[in-house]
Prior knowledge:
2 copies of one chain form a homodimer.
Chain A: H1 9-12, E1 13-16, E2 22-26, E3 37-40, H2 43-51, H3 58-75, H4 79-87, H5 95-104, H6 109-131, E4 138-142, H7 148-151, H8 157-166, E5 170-176, H9 183-195, E6 199-202, H10 207-212, E7 218-221, E8 225-227, E9 232-235, H11 238-247, E10 252-255, E11 261-262, E12 292-295, E13 302-305, E14 308-310, H12 314-317
Parallel strand pairs in A: 4-5, 4-7, 5-6, 7-10, 8-11, 10-13
Antiparallel strand pairs in A: 1-2, 2-3, 8-9, 9-12, 13-14
Helix pairs in contact in A: 2-3, 2-4, 3-4, 3-5, 3-6, 6-8
Amino acid sequence: xxxxxxxxxxxxxxxxxxxxxxxxxxxxxxxxxxxxxxxxxxxxxxxxxxxxxxxxxxxxxxxxxxxxxxxxxxxxxxxxxxxxxxxxxxxxxxxxxxxxxxxxxxxxxxxxxxxxxxxxxxxxxxxxxxxxxxxxxxxxxxxxxxxxxxxxxxxxxxxxxxxxxxxxxxxxxxxxxxxxxxxxxxxxxxxxxxxxxxxxxxxxxxxxxxxxxxxxxxxxxxxxxxxxxxxxxxxxxxxxxxxxxxxxxxxxxxxxxxxxxxxxxxxxxxxxxxxxxxxxxxxxxxxxxxxxxxxxxxxxxxxxxxxxxxxxxxxxxxxx
Amino acid sequence: xxxxxxxxxxxxxxxxxxxxxxxxxxxxxxxxxxxxxxxxxxxxxxxxxxxxxxxxxxxxxxxxxxxxxxxxxxxxxxxxxxxxxxxxxxxxxxxxxxxxxxxxxxxxxxxxxxxxxxxxxxxxxxxxxxxxxxxxxxxxxxxxxxxxxxxxxxxxxxxxxxxxxxxxxxxxxxxxxxxxxxxxxxxxxxxxxxxxxxxxxxxxxxxxxxxxxxxxxxxxxxxxxxxxxxxxxxxxxxxxxxxxxxxxxxxxxxxxxxxxxxxxxxxxxxxxxxxxxxxxxxxxxxxxxxxxxxxxxxxxxxxxxxxxxxxxxxxxxxxx
Lengths: 320, 320
């Protein structure tokens, strides 16, 4: 049972100052086979890294965008243009816009690093809140990667699994492979292996059958944007799990920092859903590739942020 | 809108007599990139072709096994041993055992060819019954491949789609890619392309979201084994679709020949579920790979065989 804290926050994303400033990322497209760093010399290069998923996960792209704006300031670039470029990289995650808002008044390396540290600290706090929802011997299912990679360190849903494991409450984790880009089998399995947490990857479509067999006690996921009423946009397939969990009377918990909550969007209908290139699914036949879906608040048992466990009605509990 | 009937039954599987008799298969593992034939000189080689999915689909492996027994007889091999070898190739599909039963008394090429022709004729009849369930403008979802490849010709669920298309009732088809082996994106999309039916492949986990958006009117699948009470074993993910369809008030229809109905198994609990090699999902991390799941009869809107449309309670309608 190894438990090395493999992913230091600055390994996931950092700003290097000096003569040629740059944002340096662990290239998540090449994990788990290779641990390769990608250097972005401009906000535009960083926006492309976000678009192509070299860095992904709502909180992590917020952190990366903050470093990107600080990079543009160090270079003396047009900050309004840098902000526009970064904001256009991906539409669904609200953390991106949240981080750019925070950086606008003081686009400095120190501000970006503080924002990064705060994000990791939020993860640790929400993980502690979420772990309290685990009964001893819990067998969890998670989807996509809401781990340290996705958040700049520690993780939201995976953070909850890590804390529950450290407290002796977690028996094992099933990991949806998460087609089409396999964030579950490539990234979450890699993080769980490094944390020494027993796990097995499954085809996304096997979750229902394993729920029916009584092998799953709870589902934990991250979020890309949470509307004011609790409707939650997350990786495509999360809504599917929410319906299946409800049918099997299993709770689905969303674990996400307050930077993911968008009180300006009243409900899920207002959340833009990114449609990605169909060739991510198949290059040979026509395909459709919605990258996210929206889970109605009614299917979410609790939303856990660093402030605590929010229960329905979310329109009240998220504001409070 | 091409409509060439590309897949002649004897292209999918046939018995060649002569000095060196053999069963010749279209190798489905190499589709859609290559159309390559695989020659099996013994029942054991054919059993390996079934195990490794060179030929797959419950009715098609029944047909292949029938040819395999005829091959063993032509060669003068031990027929009881040939039957045991073939029966051990895959556990879930009942058509395999059904076909071997039919061949036992008269293991001749003529008998095997008659069984093959009957199976294709059943497909055409059940497709006609199933097409009557389509309203004009229907937008269907299907899972895995219940096409000509899976049945030895024409197809069960895909046969229903073909007939509905010919009758002008079908607008388009969404095809689950069907992880881990991608029978949907490799085989069903290929068959639909050849039939000129508009289609798009989706990640399996996207089906729920597209149901919620109102883009799916009905779900049609095949079956590997149907118990006497209507519980239906089919490719992993079918049960997931059944729960999701019920939540969205969309009917799920199972289209399968009577050779798939196993009146000797009272319910789904008695159907063996094949667990395949985890490396089909990921070679790098632990994985679990159940190949089938069981959909409770209560989630199936109708079971369509060549005899007609069977409605609940299936314990009565399947026997009748």
